[in-house]
Amino acid sequence: MPPALHELLLSLDDPKAWEAPLDFDRDAGLRRVKVLSDSVRETLKLHFTLDEQVQDASFFADLWTERPGQRAVGLRFSSFGMMVLGFTDNVRALTSQSFPPELLTLLREHNYVALHPEQVDHPYDGINSHLRGWADTTWFQRYFDYL
User: Fold this and answer.
1) Which residues, 6+ apart, have CB-to-CB distance to 144 below 8 Å?
2) 0.90 cut: is pTM over it?
3) For 19-39, what is each residue's pLDDT tens digit?
4) In angstroms, rounded to a whole number, what is the distance separating the alpha carbons of residues 128 and 50?
């Protein structure tokens, strides 16, 4: 894992909170996701489906779209910071194919830090002692998975 990414993950970690930091505003996060989804639809002509019915997780929403003749594209929004995990076909595969560069540009324009699953598929070594006690915990689980 690149040192800068590791520093980012450590900086967003919380010693006690599992699902979200205490100051996380889910409603504001969902509004930002919806604005991004509208921007993607207008700019790239991709129509995402929003799943905001997320519970017991370290993320709060997924956007997903099927692209005829191409790989599906998904975005998973962490409850910690402005991190979004971009994936193709299956988030649990922990690997991604190339994303449309235009989508990455839009994510950056909306102040998201775009990550791929393989970037966070590394052992968790953060400050939450409860998570450190779980066997084989990864940074993916810390920020982008059901707990």
Assistant:
1) 58, 59, 76, 78, 83, 85, 91, 117, 120
2) yes
3) 999 999 999 999 999 999 999
4) 30
